[in-house]
Amino acid sequence: MIEIIRREFVYIWYYFQLQLSQIFWYWLLGIVLGSIISVFVKDKIHGAMTKLSGHKIGIFGIVIASVLGILSPLCMYGTIPLAASFSRKGIRDDWLAAFMMSSILLNPQLIMYSIALGKEVLAVRIITCFLCGITAGIIIHFVCKEKSFFNFEGFSERASHDTDPNLFLRLLKNIGRNIKATGGYFLIGILLSALFQRYVPAEQFAELFGENNEGFGLLMAATIGVPLYACGGGTIPLLQQWLYSGMSIGSAASFMLTGPSTKITNLGALKIVLGIKNFILYLTFIMIFSLICGFVVNLIF
Question: Counting CB atoms within 10 angstroms of each CB, which of 1, 26, 57, 184 has the fewest?
Fold first, then answer.
């Protein structure tokens, strides 16, 4: 019995080290890039969003807001108070919807992580997240012309942690906070990937999530994004192994859309901001959009 346990540990440790060596530098570069943007560029990005209120660019502002949302390094907990601040400064709901949706789905740090998944998957992730933000903004533009979609009462912009007068120390502290916030999830993701490699037959996984079982595979990928997604960096090792084991790029796209947008820790805050009716509409939109994107991506690839 002890020999069996020791053997299994050796196998899992081998897969763990192998996965870590393949993805560690992408994670580290993502941490550094995210911190650089947070310390030196974040205020300019958010300032550009605020300045949109002074321009009469109509629905085109949705596109700009979606781009700025992707560039913003904030997570959900930072995005909602920031959006509340934007709303009080006169930013339209359709622009806010595009900014928030894109910001929830993607940020520069996660883009760096996703390079480990390959050029095609990286391109799919950026394009689908960008289009998701635009689509959300367009829907709000045409559906909620006469009433407000969001309720930001009680939310206020958080004070910045990047206050050290020494820029180098400010950057180091930000890097430290990012490592603390994502490091545990990253290692858990690698461990889950190692366990997957050891105990899940690649043939059965490919049969479930591959192109030969497209409809059910897309639905399953979109659904498992809800309970499994805890941190963007933590899911990259799993996605990398899933794709290697036969998951279609369309199924991966569905997972990458539903995961961050329905992350359990975020849904409570979203329910407060949206209200129960709009919250249900939000979840419905995410599931439908992710499934459509999955089908289209599989057709292309």
Answer: 1
3-state secondary structure of 248: coil
Which residue is it, tokens 């990253």? 186
Position with higher pLDDT, 193 vs 71: 71
Q: Rounded CA gap, 71 and 280, in Å?
A: 27
What string of DSSP letters covers 29-76? Answer: HHHHHHHHIIIIIHHHHHHHHHHGGGS--TTHHHHHHHHHHHH----H
Q: In whole angstroms, how far apart are CA 53 and each of 56, 148, 207?
A: 8, 16, 50
Output the six-digit token pair for 298.
């599989």
| CA 129 vs CA 71, 92, 153: distances in Å | 12, 20, 27
Structure tokens at 138: 């367009």
Q: Which two tokens stand for residue 242?
A: 């899933």
pLDDT digits (tens, 9 = 90+) for 57-72: 878 899 999 999 999 8
> In whole angstroms, how far apart are CA 30 and each of 26, 36, 102, 113?
6, 10, 18, 6
| Residue given tokens 């995961």 in the structure block | 259
Query: Would you say residue 186 has pLDDT above 60?
Result: yes
Q: Which of 185, 180, 167, 133 is nearest to 38 (CA)?
A: 167
Amino acid (1-letter code) at residue 136: A
Whole-model pTM?
Answer: 0.86
Could you tell me if 250 and 298 are in contact, meaning their C-beta atoms sit under 8 angstroms apart?
A: yes
Digit-coded pLDDT (tens) for 219-236: 776 776 665 665 666 688
130: number of CA atoms within 13 Å, CB side? 13
Task: Write down the residue that tokens 């053997």 correspond to.
Answer: 7
- Residue 230 DSSP SS3: coil
Q: What was the pLDDT predicted at 174?
A: 87
